[in-house]
Amino acid sequence: MVLLKSEVVLKAGDKAPDFNLLGIDDKNHSLSEFKDQPALIIFMCNHCPYVQAKVVAMNEIYEKFNGKIAMIGINSNDPTNYPDDSFENMKKFAKEKGIKFTYLVDETQQVAKKYGAVCTPDPFLFDKNKSLVFHGRIDNAMKPEDEPTEKTMILNVEKMLAGKKIEKDFDPSMGCSIKWKSQQT
Description:
Layout: E1 3-5, E2 20-23, E3 28-30, E4 39-43, H1 49-65, E5 70-75, H2 87-97, E6 102-105, H3 110-115, E7 119-120, E8 122-126, E9 132-136, H4 152-161, E10 170-171, E11 174-177
Parallel strand pairs: 4-5, 5-6, 9-10
Antiparallel strand pairs: 1-11, 2-3, 2-6, 4-8, 7-11, 8-9
Protein backbone atom coordinates (compact mmCIF):
# COMPACT_ATOMS: atom_id res chain seq x y z
CA MET A 1 0.00 0.00 0.00
CA VAL A 2 1.38 3.36 -1.04
CA LEU A 3 0.10 6.15 1.18
CA LEU A 4 -0.39 9.54 -0.49
CA LYS A 5 -1.85 12.95 0.29
CA SER A 6 -4.05 14.86 -2.16
CA GLU A 7 -2.25 17.11 -4.60
CA VAL A 8 -3.35 20.42 -6.07
CA VAL A 9 -4.06 20.26 -9.79
CA LEU A 10 -7.48 21.91 -9.83
CA LYS A 11 -7.45 25.15 -7.85
CA ALA A 12 -10.31 26.99 -6.13
CA GLY A 13 -12.50 28.50 -8.82
CA ASP A 14 -11.51 25.99 -11.51
CA LYS A 15 -14.37 24.29 -13.34
CA ALA A 16 -15.07 20.60 -12.83
CA PRO A 17 -14.07 18.53 -15.86
CA ASP A 18 -17.13 16.77 -17.26
CA PHE A 19 -17.22 13.01 -17.67
CA ASN A 20 -19.40 10.23 -19.02
CA LEU A 21 -18.92 7.09 -16.93
CA LEU A 22 -20.76 3.84 -16.26
CA GLY A 23 -22.44 3.58 -12.88
CA ILE A 24 -23.21 0.55 -10.73
CA ASP A 25 -26.82 1.06 -11.85
CA ASP A 26 -25.59 0.03 -15.36
CA LYS A 27 -26.35 3.51 -16.74
CA ASN A 28 -23.94 6.15 -17.98
CA HIS A 29 -23.73 9.35 -15.95
CA SER A 30 -22.18 12.72 -16.71
CA LEU A 31 -21.57 15.73 -14.52
CA SER A 32 -23.81 17.78 -16.81
CA GLU A 33 -26.88 15.81 -15.65
CA PHE A 34 -26.54 17.55 -12.26
CA LYS A 35 -27.29 21.06 -13.61
CA ASP A 36 -27.52 23.92 -11.14
CA GLN A 37 -26.64 21.58 -8.28
CA PRO A 38 -23.46 21.61 -6.21
CA ALA A 39 -21.46 18.39 -6.50
CA LEU A 40 -19.21 16.40 -4.21
CA ILE A 41 -17.01 14.10 -6.26
CA ILE A 42 -15.00 11.53 -4.31
CA PHE A 43 -12.36 9.40 -5.97
CA MET A 44 -12.60 6.12 -4.07
CA CYS A 45 -12.36 2.36 -4.42
CA ASN A 46 -13.44 -0.78 -2.58
CA HIS A 47 -10.28 -2.30 -1.10
CA CYS A 48 -8.56 0.73 0.46
CA PRO A 49 -8.72 0.75 4.29
CA TYR A 50 -8.86 4.57 4.21
CA VAL A 51 -12.00 4.47 2.04
CA GLN A 52 -13.52 1.68 4.13
CA ALA A 53 -12.96 3.81 7.24
CA LYS A 54 -14.83 6.75 5.60
CA VAL A 55 -17.88 4.90 4.21
CA VAL A 56 -20.02 5.70 7.25
CA ALA A 57 -19.00 9.38 7.00
CA MET A 58 -19.68 9.42 3.24
CA ASN A 59 -23.12 7.88 3.79
CA GLU A 60 -23.78 10.49 6.49
CA ILE A 61 -22.91 13.29 4.03
CA TYR A 62 -25.22 11.76 1.43
CA GLU A 63 -28.14 11.43 3.87
CA LYS A 64 -27.64 14.93 5.29
CA PHE A 65 -27.44 16.72 1.92
CA ASN A 66 -29.46 14.42 -0.38
CA GLY A 67 -31.35 16.63 -2.81
CA LYS A 68 -29.15 19.64 -1.99
CA ILE A 69 -25.92 18.39 -3.59
CA ALA A 70 -25.03 15.65 -6.05
CA MET A 71 -22.69 13.10 -4.50
CA ILE A 72 -20.63 10.99 -6.88
CA GLY A 73 -18.05 8.32 -6.12
CA ILE A 74 -15.57 7.47 -8.88
CA ASN A 75 -13.39 4.36 -8.86
CA SER A 76 -10.34 4.85 -11.09
CA ASN A 77 -8.31 1.87 -9.85
CA ASP A 78 -7.02 -0.70 -12.33
CA PRO A 79 -8.79 -3.96 -11.39
CA THR A 80 -6.21 -6.07 -13.22
CA ASN A 81 -3.98 -6.30 -10.13
CA TYR A 82 -6.72 -5.21 -7.69
CA PRO A 83 -9.72 -7.48 -8.42
CA ASP A 84 -11.54 -6.16 -5.32
CA ASP A 85 -12.00 -2.96 -7.34
CA SER A 86 -13.69 -4.60 -10.34
CA PHE A 87 -17.03 -3.28 -11.56
CA GLU A 88 -18.90 -6.30 -10.19
CA ASN A 89 -17.19 -5.85 -6.81
CA MET A 90 -18.15 -2.16 -6.85
CA LYS A 91 -21.79 -3.29 -6.97
CA LYS A 92 -21.24 -5.74 -4.08
CA PHE A 93 -19.31 -3.17 -2.02
CA ALA A 94 -22.05 -0.55 -2.46
CA LYS A 95 -24.74 -3.03 -1.44
CA GLU A 96 -22.78 -4.28 1.61
CA LYS A 97 -21.92 -0.75 2.77
CA GLY A 98 -25.33 0.82 2.09
CA ILE A 99 -23.96 3.28 -0.49
CA LYS A 100 -26.86 5.11 -2.13
CA PHE A 101 -24.91 7.86 -3.89
CA THR A 102 -23.89 7.55 -7.54
CA TYR A 103 -20.85 5.24 -7.88
CA LEU A 104 -19.03 5.24 -11.23
CA VAL A 105 -16.12 3.40 -12.82
CA ASP A 106 -13.33 5.34 -14.60
CA GLU A 107 -11.93 2.50 -16.71
CA THR A 108 -9.58 4.69 -18.76
CA GLN A 109 -8.43 6.61 -15.64
CA GLN A 110 -8.67 9.83 -17.69
CA VAL A 111 -11.18 11.43 -15.30
CA ALA A 112 -8.87 10.94 -12.30
CA LYS A 113 -6.02 12.45 -14.30
CA LYS A 114 -8.11 15.50 -15.31
CA TYR A 115 -9.02 16.13 -11.68
CA GLY A 116 -5.51 15.45 -10.40
CA ALA A 117 -6.80 12.76 -8.03
CA VAL A 118 -3.98 10.68 -6.57
CA CYS A 119 -5.38 8.89 -3.53
CA THR A 120 -8.52 7.21 -2.20
CA PRO A 121 -10.51 8.93 -0.90
CA ASP A 122 -9.79 12.19 -2.74
CA PRO A 123 -12.86 14.50 -2.46
CA PHE A 124 -13.63 17.60 -4.56
CA LEU A 125 -16.51 19.95 -3.65
CA PHE A 126 -17.97 22.14 -6.41
CA ASP A 127 -20.61 24.87 -6.15
CA LYS A 128 -23.73 24.95 -8.35
CA ASN A 129 -21.67 26.53 -11.17
CA LYS A 130 -19.27 23.56 -10.93
CA SER A 131 -16.45 25.78 -9.64
CA LEU A 132 -14.14 24.15 -7.11
CA VAL A 133 -14.68 25.50 -3.58
CA PHE A 134 -12.90 22.79 -1.56
CA HIS A 135 -10.53 19.93 -2.26
CA GLY A 136 -9.69 17.82 0.72
CA ARG A 137 -10.53 15.55 3.53
CA ILE A 138 -13.88 14.24 4.69
CA ASP A 139 -12.91 14.67 8.34
CA ASN A 140 -9.80 15.09 10.48
CA ALA A 141 -9.25 11.38 11.21
CA MET A 142 -6.17 10.80 9.07
CA LYS A 143 -5.68 7.09 9.82
CA PRO A 144 -8.33 4.38 9.45
CA GLU A 145 -8.24 3.64 13.19
CA ASP A 146 -8.58 7.31 14.22
CA GLU A 147 -11.88 8.78 15.41
CA PRO A 148 -12.73 12.16 13.86
CA THR A 149 -13.21 15.21 16.04
CA GLU A 150 -14.20 17.46 13.10
CA LYS A 151 -16.54 16.67 10.21
CA THR A 152 -14.62 18.83 7.74
CA MET A 153 -16.67 18.09 4.61
CA ILE A 154 -20.03 18.52 6.34
CA LEU A 155 -18.90 21.89 7.72
CA ASN A 156 -17.70 22.99 4.28
CA VAL A 157 -20.88 21.85 2.50
CA GLU A 158 -22.93 23.77 5.07
CA LYS A 159 -20.81 26.90 4.49
CA MET A 160 -21.14 26.58 0.72
CA LEU A 161 -24.92 26.08 0.86
CA ALA A 162 -25.21 29.12 3.15
CA GLY A 163 -23.23 31.24 0.68
CA LYS A 164 -20.27 31.59 3.05
CA LYS A 165 -16.64 31.42 1.95
CA ILE A 166 -14.65 28.31 2.77
CA GLU A 167 -11.46 29.79 4.21
CA LYS A 168 -9.20 26.79 3.66
CA ASP A 169 -9.98 25.61 0.13
CA PHE A 170 -7.34 22.83 0.19
CA ASP A 171 -6.93 20.53 3.17
CA PRO A 172 -5.34 17.31 1.88
CA SER A 173 -7.03 13.98 2.21
CA MET A 174 -4.89 10.93 2.79
CA GLY A 175 -5.27 7.39 1.52
CA CYS A 176 -4.00 4.64 -0.73
CA SER A 177 -2.60 5.66 -4.08
CA ILE A 178 -4.81 5.27 -7.12
CA LYS A 179 -3.73 2.07 -8.81
CA TRP A 180 -2.68 3.28 -12.25
CA LYS A 181 -2.60 0.86 -15.17
CA SER A 182 1.15 1.38 -15.63
CA GLN A 183 1.92 0.51 -11.97
CA GLN A 184 3.43 -2.80 -11.05
CA THR A 185 2.32 -4.71 -7.96
